[in-house]
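Aim 2, interim progress. The first record below pairs a target sequence with its C-alpha cells.
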Amino acid sequence: MIYNPTAGGRRRRRLNQAVARLRERGARVDVRETTAAGDALAFAETAENFDVVAVAGGDGTINEAANGLLRRADAPALGIIPLGTANVFAAEIGYDDSAPETAADVIACGDIRHATVGAANGRVFCQMAGIGFDADVVAGVDVALKRRIGKGAYAWESLRRFWDYRKRMFSVEIDGERREASSVIVANGRFYAGRYICAPAASIDEDCFQVCLFRNAGRLHVARYGLGLLRNRLQYYPDFEILKGRNLRIWASDGGADDPVQGDGDVIARLPVDIALSAKRLAIVKP
C-alpha cells in the first residue's frame, strides 16, 4: 500500500480503516509512505512478492505507481483506495462509493481489468493529458493551498489564470491530420476534474483516444467552455470538436516551447509533446 503521509490526519484514518479491513480478510499488507516526488514510482517498480500494489491517494500518486508498474515485465495489479482531491480515475473504473472499507473489499475480491493508457513523451497517463488553459492551472496550483482546501485550490488558480489569460494557439497533428486549438484534452476516459464529462465516448477499454479541441481563444471562450463542462454540455458547442486518434504531436503554433502538459492532474511533460497509446496495458483491480 503506497501512501503519501502529507495527506493529513483524516486521510490517515481512512488509510488505517482500509488496511484493517484487508487484514481482517486475511491479507498481508505492507504500507510504504512516500517522502518525495518519485517515491511512488520507485515503490511500484520494485515491490516484489505482492499480488496487488495499491495506492491510498489521488490521481497523481496513481499516475506515479502506474509508471512504475509498467516498467516491469511481470507487474502485479494496481489497486486504489481513493483519498485524493478529485479521484477521477477511481470514478472511471467504477467506484461509486469512496468508503475505505468498500475500496478494501474491491482490492480483496474485485476482478482484474486491463486498461489502455497513454504516454506523453514517454511518461504514462491513465485518464487524460491536457495542453493549454487547464495545464496552466495545474502548473500554477499552490501545493500547500491544495492540501488545505482541496478542489478550491484549482478554482482559485483558474480564476487567477482567467484574469491573466493570454491568447495561445496550438498545432495538433492527429494521425497525420492537422488542427489548431487554444486548448487540447487527450481523453482516455469520460470523466474530467471529478465526474464532469468531457469526452462521452472515451474509454480505458478502447485502443484510441478521444481528442478534445477547444478551437477559440480568449477570456469569453474560456468562461463558455468552463460553463459547458460544469453543465456536461461541451459536446454540443459548435467550436468544440472531438476526434479519434492514436498518435499525436502537439506544439505551440507560434514556435514557442516549454508550455506545460498536464497528465492526471500533474505536470508530466513540456511542449512539444508526442502522445501515443502505451504498448502495455495496465492491470487494475476494478469494482
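The second target in this work package is listed in the same format:
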Amino acid sequence: MDFYAPLRGAKGPALLLMVSGGFVSGEGTLEAFLPIVETMARQWGYSVFAVMHDPQPGRVIGEIVPEVRRAVRYIRLHAKHYNIDPNRLGVMAFLPAATCR
C-alpha cells in the first residue's frame, strides 16, 4: 500500500484506490494509476491510499477481500498519523486504459 498525501488543503476523508484491473494487481499496474492518484491528492486535496492486493490467478476473489479489509482496518487504526477521518473512507477502482488489452 502506498500513501499519497495532499500538498495542501486536506479534506479529512481519504480514498482507497484498489490498484487492480480485473482483480489483477501489481507494481506495473500502479504506474497506470499514478496520473489519477496524483490529481486526487495534489489538485483535489484527498489523502489517497493505493492498495495492491495479491493478484489472480494466484489468489481467488474470496482471498482478496480479507486483504482489502485488513488495509481498511490498518488505515482506520492509524488515521491520526495520516491526518484523516477514519469514518470518511471511500473505496474506488477502475481499469485504466493502459492495462486494457
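The helical segments are 27-43, 61-77, 79-82. This observation will shape the mutagenesis plan for the next reporting period.
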